[in-house]
Inverse folding.
């Protein structure tokens, strides 16, 4: 389960034979300490398809992902998000009927 969204993001990947210059670890900062984790040699199969899929994923799931991520937060943050969501849905529906 993701810590950002309850809907999984599914991409097509395949194993590859790594070259010596390929990085097989991910890194991040934890405070002032750089941390690393080894990864397996997999790559996205089709970057153009992945880009289109991710754009649709974001458009289709942005509100449920935000609600999931904001759960348990301060009430003012939740109310602000609810207001923004209502406004965005209204603006989108009004925009769709302008044509």
């Amino acid at each position: 389960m993701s810590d950002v969204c309850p809907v999984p993001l599914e991409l097509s990947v395949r194993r590859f034979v790594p070259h010596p210059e390929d990085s097989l670890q991910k890194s991040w900062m934890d405070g002032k300490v750089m941390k690393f984790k080894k990864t397996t040699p997999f790559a996205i199969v089709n970057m153009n398809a992945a880009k289109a899929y991710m754009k649709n994923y974001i458009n289709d799931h942005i509100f449920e992902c935000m609600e999931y991520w904001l759960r348990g937060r301060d009430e003012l943050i939740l109310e602000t998000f609810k207001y923004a969501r209502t406004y965005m849905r209204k603006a989108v529906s009004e925009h769709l009927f302008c044509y």
About this structure: Helices lie at 47-70, 75-96. Residues 13-96 form one domain.
